[in-house]
Amino acid sequence: GTKLKLAFDMDSHGTIGVDLVAMSVNDIITLGARPLFFLDYFATSRLDVDQAEAVVAGIVRGCRESSCVLLGGETAEMPGFYGEGEYDLSGFAVGLVRGDKVINGKRDIQRGDVLVGLPSSGVHSNGFSLARKVLERSGLSLDAPFPKDFGDATTEGKTVGQVLLEPTRLYVDALTAVHYSGQAKVKGAVHVTGGGFQDNIPRVLPQGLGVSVRRGSWDVLPVFHWMQSVGRIEEEEMYRTFNMGVGFIMVMSPEDAQVALDRCQDATIIGEVVDKEGVTFH
């Protein structure tokens, strides 16, 4: 997506491959599947070997961290089609799940179940058209220090570009540690991507049910406070566009949720399933 434009502008390509893998395997695990293998496609006008090596190194890192084999891929040179130094990147992953381990929220989720949230590492890979508009409005360059008024320990010493390019977190190990523990059942799983909370969470819920999300139950990352302030973006739009610091959600019974909290030390309960359809905040 348009996160690539930032990588081009910064001439920084070492983590964009992690994003590519993460956006595939984080979707696969919402079904309870374990990723098996990944293939990539890299297209450019003229191959820059150093640039391509950096991209592939990120793909390898993403596959290694998600226990997924990089089987191969394709590199295409199309002179005149892409701008100088630009490329396009795509890929796909294949996973496997036994029938008794398939996660089916529409079948299993009930009123009173809770939402176990796992933190994101940053903006991840969605919402960059809006993020780039905010960057333009801020007047800051990509190599400018991230504003101290909004920063914390996670942004200290980093530039605006580095904060925005922070690679998407991989959730394979976390989901596997809980769902395959033999001690708990994940009833529903949500990869919080484009559409944020409002569009992604309802997809896993049975008809007639919704969720109530507890504001303040997790740390909203500095980059989101900065974008909302500089861009003068309404809170509802922020939650509909970005992950707001929660990149993955597991829906579980209150009893089983304790297993997730024990096995994923940075997990928090961020809400519960209610009778009213939709996503509400309190």
User: Roughly how many Å is the radius of gyration?
Assistant: 19 Å
Biggest sheet statistics: 6 strands, mixed
Structural domains: how many: 2
Report the sheet-strand fraction: 15-25%
Q: What's the N-to-C terminus distance?
A: 32 Å
Architecture per CATH nomenclature, i.e. the level-2 architecture of the largest domain: Alpha-Beta Complex
| Uncertain ranges | none
Q: What strand line-up does the widest sheet have?
A: 5-7-4-8-6-9
Number of strands: 9
CATH class of the largest domain: Alpha Beta
**Which structural class matches the secondary elements?**
alpha+beta
The CATH H-level homologous superfamily of the largest domain: PurM-like C-terminal domain
Count of alpha and pi helical runs: 11
- The shape, in one word, is globular
Query: Whole-number average pLDDT?
Result: 96
Helix content: 25-40%
One letter per element, helices H and strands E, the order comes to: HHEHEEHEHHHEHEHHEHEE
Instruction: Assign the CATH topology of the largest domain.
Output: Phosphoribosyl-aminoimidazole Synthetase, Chain A, domain 2
GO biological process, one term: 'de novo' IMP biosynthetic process
GO molecular function: ATP binding; phosphoribosylamine-glycine ligase activity; phosphoribosylformylglycinamidine cyclo-ligase activity
Pathway: Purine metabolism; IMP biosynthesis via de novo pathway; 5-amino-1-(5-phospho-D-ribosyl)imidazole from N(2)-formyl-N(1)-(5-phospho-D-ribosyl)glycinamide: step 2/2
EC number: 6.3.3.1
